[in-house]
From TrEMBL:
The lineage of its organism: Eukaryota, Fungi, Fungi incertae sedis, Mucoromycota, Glomeromycotina. GO terms for cellular component: microtubule organizing center; Rad51B-Rad51C-Rad51D-XRCC2 complex; replication fork. This is P-loop containing nucleoside triphosphate hydrolase protein. GO terms for biological process: DNA strand invasion; double-strand break repair via homologous recombination; reciprocal meiotic recombination; telomere maintenance. InterPro entries: HRR_RAD51_Paralog (IPR051988), P-loop_NTPase (IPR027417), Rad51_C (IPR013632), Rad51D_C (IPR047323), RecA_ATP-bd (IPR020588). The keyword Glycoprotein does not apply. GO terms for molecular function: ATP binding; ATP-dependent DNA damage sensor activity; four-way junction DNA binding; hydrolase activity; single-stranded DNA binding. It is found in: Nucleus. Belongs to the RecA family. RAD51 subfamily. Residues 42-217 form the RecA family profile domain.
Amino acid sequence: MSQRSIKKERHFARPGRYFLFRKEILSTISPKRGNNLLETPQTSVLSTGCYGIDELLQGGLHPGEITEISGETATGKTQLAFSTTLTTLCANKDNKVLFIDTVSTFSAERMRMLFLESDRFEEEDVMNRIRIVKCFNVYSVMEFIEDLRDHLENKDKNDNIYTNIKLIIIDSFAAILAPLLGVTQTQGHSLMVTFTRILRNLAKEYDIAILVINAAIASYPNNPISVFSSTKSKPSLGISWTFMPNIQLYLTHCIDYTIENGIVIKENEGEKNIQQNYVYTNRKGIEVIMKPRICEVLRSRNGQMGKWCIFYMGGNELFTHYDIS
């Protein structure tokens, strides 16, 4: 046997991370019968409360799938999670949302003000259908998920705290996994794959949509996956995480772009600057300054990548550009 063949044999015999992640990815790709697709109820899709982002998600968050929202600081990741929470609760009076808080970002007061001031939600009590759990490391989150599964399996009528859970939000996913990851930390990457598999199985088995909030890290000279050349950041957690969620949305600030006839172009090539804020008066008579953001699909298993939309965020409202232009 030649030396080249021996090296090749050793390479494929080595238990590298690549083969572990490839096996995990392939295990999630399974053929579906056409009848099953026709029988899937479209009403089960959960809206984010923002029409443009729902279009990117092919209607909204899909039960049985993991959706990732990542982006730069102050681009609206947590506010979008709050908006999705209230939209899900108002869609059905029996719906419940589980919010796993890993960095103390959940604010009951902010959620209440979003509910009271926004024009998108009806006047009804929804706060008692939000379940909040604080976990500050991946091991405590995994332990809680197993406990949640036990409750769902037992279906104890006297313990209905987790019945009708339609959405699970983890904010922030990066906070509990990033410390475990690194070039030489194969155990951390394996743990991430295992944890994601547990979440995916839970979502599929109990028809739950899972939304994870990720952070951003620098990407120089730019992010090669983004459709915008000025995007100099990318989702954290590395390449091994990239293909774990079903769809990966990325939020960025509108800094170097202008808009003309609904199309984003480079600065100084258009007449109307997208950085112009939009002032909106809500049902409480409060003027809200709406600032533009861009949401794009970086990766998707079931839809088209490279799609994007403009949305305006401010105070307690979310609008797409087409809703206000």
